[in-house]
Amino acid sequence: MSPQLYEFHLPLSPEELLKSGGVNQYVVQEVVSIKHLPSQFKAFQAAFRAQGPLAILEHFDTIYSILHHFRSIDPGLKEDALEFLIKVVSRHSQELSAILDDATLSASDRNAHLNALKMNCYALIRLLESFEMMTSQKSLTDLDVGRKNKKSQSKAAYGFDWEEERQSILQLLTQLLQLDIRHLWNHSVIEEEFVSLVTGCCYRLLENPTITHQKNRPTREAVTHLLGVALTRYNHMLSATVKIIQMLQHFEHLSPVLVAAVSLWATDYGMKSIVGEIVREIGQKCPQELSRDTSCARGFASFLTELAERVPAILLSSMCILLDHLDGENYMMRNAVLAAMAEMVLQVLHGDHLEEAARETRDQFLDTLQAHGYDVNSFVRSRVLQLFTRIVQQKVLPLTRFQSVVALAVGRLADKSVLVCKNAIQLLASFLANNPFSSKLSDTDLAGPLQKETQKLKEMRAQRQSAAAALEPEEEWEAMLPELKSTLQQLLELPQEEEEIPEEIASAKTVEEVKGHIRQLLAKARYKQAITLARAATGHFPESEPFVHTDPEESEETRFLNLLGIIFKGPAASTQDCNGSIVPGQSDAPSASEPEGSRGSDELVKQEMLVQYLQDAFSFSQKITEAIGIISKMMYENTTTVVQEVIEFFVMVYQFGVPQALFGVRRMLPLIWSKEPGVREAVLNAYRQLYLSPKGDSARARAQALIQNLSLLLEDASVGTLQCLEEILCEFVQKDELKPAVTQVLWEQATKKVPCSALERCSSVMLLGMMARGKPEIVGSNLDTLVSIGLDRTSPPDYRLAQQVCQAIANISDRRKPSLGKCHPPFRLPQEHVLFERLRDMVTAGFAHPDPLWIPFKEAAVTLIYQLAEGPEVLCAQMLQSCAKQALEKLEEKSSSQEDLRQTVPVLPTFLLMHLLSLAGDVALQQLVHLEQAVSGELCRRRVLQEEQEHKTKEPKEKTSGSETTMEEELGLTGATADDTEAELIRGICELELLDGKNSYLCAAASLALGKFCMISFPDEPLFPSSATFCDSHLRLLFTMLEKSPLPTVRSNLMVATGDLAIRFPNLVDPWTPHLYARLRDPAKQVRKTAGLVMTHLILKDMVKVKGQVSEMAVLLVDPEPQIAALARNFFNELSHKSNAVYNLLPDIISRLSDPDGGVEEEPFHTIMKQLLAYITKDKQNESLVEKLCQRFRTARTERQHRDLSYCVSQLPLTERGLHKMLDNFECFGDKLSDECIFSAFLTAVSKLRRGAKPESKATIDEFEQKLRACHTRGLEGTEELEHSSHRATPAKAQSTGSRRQRLASVSSDGDFLMPKSCRTTRRLPHTQRRTSKKRPKIVFSSDESSEEELSAEMSEDETPKKTTPIRRASAGRPRS
C-alpha cells in the first residue's frame, strides 16, 4: 500500500499494530528477526538520508521490531536506534515549522507528514519508556552496590548518560508541541490519543520513585514544561486533573513534585483554573473514605499544605470547597486545610489596608483555627498551636485577637498530650518575643499607670459630656451634612411626580408635630424620608414658619438645606448658613471654639487608645503570669523536649522582667543533676544567657551586674538551691566562662574596698566559696585575707559572715575519701594556724550569748576544723572544755544566788545547755566522719605505700617461699585482712573512747545530739560487747519522741536522724519501720515534708522494705501543700523507673486506700489512682491488673470498694486481651453493675477500647457492652423487687473515716514508750488465735496482713528483739519474702 494512502492509528498496546484494522489502517507487515535487524536498520538510515523524516513511512516495521525485541537485541543497536530517532524527530520538527506555514500543501502531503509525525513520536516515546523501565529495574537490582560512581556506571552500561539523554528527549517533544501541529489534522482538531501518548509518557516518568532525587531535577522540570504546553495548547486540563488526583492517591512521593508543577502552570503558564479543578476534586472526596484510606489522605494533605505555601492567593478562592474536610475523621486532612488557612493569613490576608470582605475572610479563618485548638485529635491541636506560632512570629495576628489566642495557649498547657503542651509553651514564648506592648511585663509596674490613665479618661469624658451639651446638635449637623446634600441632589434630579400626602402630615395637627417627625428622621439618618416629609410640609403649611418661602432667588437645594438645618438645630441657628458660613453681622465667636472642640476630641481619642493599650498589656501580663504557674509544674516531666522548652520559656520570661519568673529560674536549678545530658546542658545554657551576658559599658560594670543578679538567687535560698548553684558556678569556673573581673569585684566587696551592705558582703563570700570548688586557688591564695574578713574580733560578731567564710574555706579541701593510689598526703594545716585560733575564740566567746546564729556558725566551724586541721580532736576537745567550764561557772553562780532563797536545785539557762549539747553532738558526729574517712583513708594510703616499698626491696628468692602466703596474696586476702584490722581499730575508738560519757530549743538540741551519738555505735560487734548496745538501747527513746513529742521541730529532726540510722544500722531499725511510715500522716506539714524526703531516699536506695505501707506516700499526692505533693510525684516518677516496682505495689495501695477503716475519701482516691495507673504502660501488666481487679470484686466488703475498683478498671488502657480477661471474670462483677457509677466506669473502659479497636474486634466489644447493659438493667429490676422486701433487709451501718492525721500523745510515764511493731511474733501464732470471731472476707495481701498485725502488735520491753535477722540490701527487682 502506498504511504500516502494509509492512515496510522496510535495503538493502546503494541499488539494492536499486528492486527488487521479498518480500511486504510496501517498494519505491521513483518516483525524482523534479531538477525536481520542491523541490516534493516542501516537501510532505514540510508532512506532517511535520501527522503528525510518521511522515510519512517516505509521503515516503521524495523523500529517496531527493535521495540519488540528490545530485551534481547544488542545494547549498541538500542543506543543507535535511540540516537537516530532523536535525529529524525528533531529534523521533522525543523521541517514542520515551514510546512505548516505553506498554504499550498496538498492533502496527500499533509496526510504523509501526519503519519510520519505520529510514527516518529510513537517510536521515540516507546523507546524512551523501554530505556526508563530497564534503568529502574537495574537500579533495583543494584541497591546493594555502593552509591559511588553511579553516573559512571550508567555511562558504562549504555555508552551515554541516560539522565541527560532523557532530558533532551523531553525538551525535543516540548519543542515539537509548541508548533501549531493542529493543522495536520482534519478541521484542525488534534486527536486525543496523540496528546495522551505524549503526556502519558510524562506521567509514567513521574511514577518512578527516584524522580524526587536531586540529580533528576532537570528531568522534573522538563516534564513540567512539557505538560504545561499540553495544558495551554491542547486542552489537557481535564485529563491532567484526573491523572494528578490518581497519582496523589497511589504515589506518596509525588506530592512535592506535583505541587511544584501545578504552581508553575498557575503562574508561568497562566493556568490558574487547574488549581481550582484539582481542589474541587479533592473537596468532593468522601471524608469517610479518606478516614479509611490513610495513604490517600496523606497524599492529599501534603499536596494541599505545600500548594498553599506556594500559591496561597490562587488557592484562596477555592477554600470553601475544602471546608467539609474539617468535619471529617481524618486528622491529616484537617491539618492540611488549617495549614492552608494559616498560609493565606500569613501571605495574603494581612496588613491594615485589607478590604472589608478580605478582613471578614481572615477573621473566619482565624476563628476556625482557634476552634480547632480544642480538636479531639492531639495532632490537630498541636498543629494549630504551631500555625499560630508562625502567625505570631511574622506579626500578622491582629491585636484584637491577642488575648483570645493567649488564653488558648494557656488552656492547652493542661493538655494530656505532651506534644500539645510543648507547642503551647513555644507559642507563649513567641507571644513574649513578639509582643507589641513592652520589653518589661510586670503586673505591678503596669497596674499603676493603668489605674492612673483610666481615672484621667473618666475625668476627660465627664468634662466632654458637660461641655458638649450645647454643641451637640451643631456637631451632629456638621457630621450629617455631606450625606444629606448627596441625598437631596439625587432626589431633586428625579422627575417630580404627584406625591401622596405622607401619613405624618395627614395625622399631624400642628407644625411642631411635623418638625418633630423631621427631626427624628434626621437623627436616625433616614435622610430621604426627612426630605420627602419637608417638601410635603412646605406645600401643606405654606404660611407657617419655617416652611414659608421668602427668597425667590434662592436655589431649591439651598432652601431645603436651610429649612432642615433650622428644624434640626432649632431657631437659634437660622442666622447661620447651612454650609457653615456666617451671615454678615453675626458674631464669629463660635468659630473660635471649633478648633478647641476638635483638639479636645482628638485628646479624648488618644487617651482612650492609651487606656486600651495599657489594659491589653496588663491582661497579657496576667495571662503570662498564669502560664508561669502551670508551666513551672511541668519542669520535671519525663519528656526531655518538654523540659527543654520549659527552661527556654523561663529564660525568656525572666528577660522580659516578669517578677514570677525568678521562681521558675530557681526551680530549674535541681535539673543540673539530671541524668539526661540534654536537660543538664539546657540548664547551663539558661544560666549562661541569664547571668553570663549582662549589659554594661565596661567589663567591671558587667561583672557588677552579674554579681547583683546572682545575689538575688541567694536570697532566702534553701540548702538544696545553694548546692545546685554551686554546681553550676563550678562548671562555669572550670570552663573559664567567668571573667577575672567578677572575682576581683567579689573580693572588693568582701574586703569592703567598695561600699556595700552586710548582706551583699555575705553574698560575695558565699559566691567566692562556690567558685572555689571549681578552682581552689581562688580562696587558697587569699586564705589569710578571708580569715581576717570573717573571723576578726569585732563586737558584736557577725556569725552569718563567719559561717560563709568557713564554708568557703572548706571548699579548698578534698572532701572525698583519699584513693588508695595517691602518694601525696592530704592537705592539712597545723594546729597553730591563725584560722583555728580565730575559730576557737569565736566559738567559745559566743557560747554564753543567746544568739540564734551561733549554732549554724559553730557547726560550720567544727566541720572546717575536722576537714583542714592536723589533730582536729585536740582543738575540739579544747573548745568543749572551755564551753563546759563556762556552763559550770554559770551553774555555780546560779547555785550561790539561790542559797539565800533556800532553793536546792540550781537551774542552768536553757540556751547554755542547748549550746553545749549541740556542740557535743557536732563534735561526736564529725569525729566519726573523721575516723571513717580521713583516718581510715590515711591508714590505707600508708599501708599501700609500705607494701609498694616492700615489693620493690623484696629479693627474688623470697618469691618461692611459703605456699600459704602466696595463696593468700593471689586471692587478695592480705589487703582484706588489713582492711578488717583498720576497721576494727576505728570501731574500737568510736565505741570505747567516744561513748564512755522542758524548753523546745533544748529538747530539739538534745534529741538531735542523741541521734548523732547513736550514729557512732557499732552493734553486734564481738570485740566490744560492753558498749555495743548503745544505739540499740536508745532506739526505744528515739522512736517514742518521734511519735509523741508535741514539737514539730523535734519530730522533724528525729525523722532525719532515724533515717540516717536506718542506713547505718538497717537490722536494728527494721522492726521500727512502721513508725517511720506513720510520720507521713503527721499533722505538721514540716514533719510530713521531712518524712517524705527521708522515706523517698530510703525506699529508692533499697534501705527499707517496701510494703503496702507505701500507700502513705501515695496519700501525699493529694496533700494540701504543693511542695509535699510535688515530692510525692517525684518519688513515684523515680520508683516507676525501677522495673515493675509500681506495678507490684499497686494491689496493696488500692487495698489500703479503699479500706473503709483507714483509707481516703472517694475524690482523693480517684486523683491518686489516676496518677499511679498512668505508670502502667506495658500491655501484660495492664492485662494482669485487669484480671486482679475483676477478681477483687468478690472479696470487696462495701459498695465504696466496688466503685473504687471499677474506677481503677476505667483508668487502665484496655487492650483486646484485657477485654477477654474481663469476659472471663464477668461473674465477679456482673452483679455489681446495678450501681450507676460502676456501670458508667465499665462503659468508659469500653469506649476507650472502641476508639482504637480493629474491625474484627468490634463484635467482641459490642457483645461485652450488651452484657454490661443487660446486667445493669437486670440489676435495676432486682432493686425494684427488693424494695418490697425492704422490711427484712438490714441496712449496713456506714463507717465514717476520721481524720488521717494522728493526734500526738504526751510522754507521761514509762508505759507510754513505744515498742517496735514486729511482724515475726504474730506470724507464729496459730490461725485460731489470730481469728477469734467470724468476719466477712477482707481484701488482703501478704503485706496487708503483716502491716495490720504490726499495727496491732504491742510488745513489752522484755519482748523487744535483741538480735535481729540481718536483711540483704537487694535490688528493687528482687522478690522479697
TrEMBL record:
<keyword id="KW-0963">Cytoplasm</keyword>
<dbReference type="InterPro" id="IPR016024">
    <property type="entry name" value="ARM-type_fold"/>
</dbReference>
<dbReference type="GO" id="GO:0010032">
    <property type="term" value="P:meiotic chromosome condensation"/>
</dbReference>
<feature type="domain" description="Condensin complex subunit 1 N-terminal">
    <location>
        <begin position="77"/>
        <end position="240"/>
    </location>
</feature>
<dbReference type="InterPro" id="IPR011989">
    <property type="entry name" value="ARM-like"/>
</dbReference>
<keyword id="KW-0498">Mitosis</keyword>
<dbReference type="Pfam" id="PF12922">
    <property type="entry name" value="Cnd1_N"/>
</dbReference>
<dbReference type="GO" id="GO:0000796">
    <property type="term" value="C:condensin complex"/>
</dbReference>
<keyword id="KW-0597">Phosphoprotein</keyword>
<dbReference type="GO" id="GO:1905821">
    <property type="term" value="P:positive regulation of chromosome condensation"/>
</dbReference>
<feature type="region of interest" description="Disordered">
    <location>
        <begin position="1277"/>
        <end position="1377"/>
    </location>
</feature>
<feature type="region of interest" description="Disordered">
    <location>
        <begin position="578"/>
        <end position="601"/>
    </location>
</feature>
<dbReference type="InterPro" id="IPR032682">
    <property type="entry name" value="Cnd1_C"/>
</dbReference>
<comment type="function">
    <text>Regulatory subunit of the condensin complex, a complex required for conversion of interphase chromatin into mitotic-like condense chromosomes. The condensin complex probably introduces positive supercoils into relaxed DNA in the presence of type I topoisomerases and converts nicked DNA into positive knotted forms in the presence of type II topoisomerases. May target the condensin complex to DNA via its C-terminal domain. May promote the resolution of double-strand DNA catenanes (intertwines) between sister chromatids.</text>
</comment>
<dbReference type="GO" id="GO:0000779">
    <property type="term" value="C:condensed chromosome, centromeric region"/>
</dbReference>
<dbReference type="GO" id="GO:0007076">
    <property type="term" value="P:mitotic chromosome condensation"/>
</dbReference>
<protein>
    <recommendedName>
        <fullName>Condensin complex subunit 1</fullName>
    </recommendedName>
</protein>
<feature type="region of interest" description="Disordered">
    <location>
        <begin position="946"/>
        <end position="970"/>
    </location>
</feature>
<feature type="compositionally biased region" description="Polar residues">
    <location>
        <begin position="1293"/>
        <end position="1309"/>
    </location>
</feature>
<feature type="compositionally biased region" description="Basic and acidic residues">
    <location>
        <begin position="1277"/>
        <end position="1286"/>
    </location>
</feature>
<dbReference type="Pfam" id="PF12717">
    <property type="entry name" value="Cnd1"/>
</dbReference>
<keyword id="KW-0226">DNA condensation</keyword>
<keyword id="KW-0132">Cell division</keyword>
<dbReference type="GO" id="GO:0005829">
    <property type="term" value="C:cytosol"/>
</dbReference>
<dbReference type="GO" id="GO:0005654">
    <property type="term" value="C:nucleoplasm"/>
</dbReference>
<dbReference type="InterPro" id="IPR024324">
    <property type="entry name" value="Condensin_cplx_su1_N"/>
</dbReference>
<dbReference type="GO" id="GO:0036064">
    <property type="term" value="C:ciliary basal body"/>
</dbReference>
<keyword id="KW-0539">Nucleus</keyword>
<feature type="domain" description="Condensin complex subunit 1 C-terminal">
    <location>
        <begin position="1049"/>
        <end position="1210"/>
    </location>
</feature>
<comment type="subunit">
    <text>Component of the condensin complex, which contains the SMC2 and SMC4 heterodimer, and three non SMC subunits that probably regulate the complex: NCAPH/BRRN1, NCAPD2/CAPD2 and NCAPG. Interacts with histones H1 and H3.</text>
</comment>
<dbReference type="InterPro" id="IPR007673">
    <property type="entry name" value="Condensin_cplx_su1"/>
</dbReference>
<feature type="compositionally biased region" description="Acidic residues">
    <location>
        <begin position="1345"/>
        <end position="1358"/>
    </location>
</feature>
<dbReference type="GO" id="GO:0051301">
    <property type="term" value="P:cell division"/>
</dbReference>
<dbReference type="GO" id="GO:0000228">
    <property type="term" value="C:nuclear chromosome"/>
</dbReference>
<feature type="compositionally biased region" description="Basic and acidic residues">
    <location>
        <begin position="946"/>
        <end position="961"/>
    </location>
</feature>
<dbReference type="GO" id="GO:0034451">
    <property type="term" value="C:centriolar satellite"/>
</dbReference>
<keyword id="KW-0131">Cell cycle</keyword>
<comment type="similarity">
    <text>Belongs to the CND1 (condensin subunit 1) family.</text>
</comment>
<dbReference type="InterPro" id="IPR026971">
    <property type="entry name" value="CND1/NCAPD3"/>
</dbReference>
<keyword id="KW-0158">Chromosome</keyword>
<dbReference type="GO" id="GO:0042393">
    <property type="term" value="F:histone binding"/>
</dbReference>
<feature type="compositionally biased region" description="Basic residues">
    <location>
        <begin position="1320"/>
        <end position="1338"/>
    </location>
</feature>
